[in-house]
Amino acid sequence: MELDYKAIGKRIKIARINADMTQEALAGKVDLSPSHMSNIETGTTKVSLTTIVNIANALSVTVDDLLCDNLVRARAQMERDIQAVLDGCDDYEIRIAKNTMQAVIETLRKNKALQNG
Predict the structure, then answer these.
(1) Tens of pLDDT, residues 61-77
(2) What gap in Å lies between CA 5 and CA 51, rounded to an integer?
(3) pLDDT at position 6 over 90
(4) Percent helix, strand and coil across the chain, each rounded to 5?
(5) Based on the domain organization, do 65 and 82 belong to the same domain?
(6) Are residues 64 and 80 in the same domain?
(7) Which domain holds residue 41?
(8) Is the domain of 22 the same as that of 38?
(9) Distances, alpha carbon 94 to alpha carbons 14, 79, 84, 99, 106, in Å
(10) Nearest CA-CA partner of 8 in 57, 38, 52, 50
(11) Are 56 and 109 part of one and the same domain?
């Protein structure tokens, strides 16, 4: 399996913004150049496990928070992401989101049953 470095970079950027930290400040905390930190956030460079752990510690998040798009079993983080999306919705949007998710899940299960024959 190839890691999705763009997804990792996006998660790092979101966590950094949530921590109210600049790229330069984060780069300084983890002993990287600002340009390298930028390349990590855009996914144009591979990032080592050591660097991911250092970034997670600097941002007070878990490594799972940063890698969850690459993990098969990342339910807790995905549930938090869904809740964060729903937190910004009005009543109408929540109803549409719920109906859409329900339809997608039903379709996935129907297709899974067909594949399993």
Answers:
(1) 999 889 887 766 767 77
(2) 13
(3) yes
(4) 75, 0, 25
(5) no
(6) no
(7) 5-70
(8) yes
(9) 23, 15, 12, 9, 18
(10) 52
(11) no
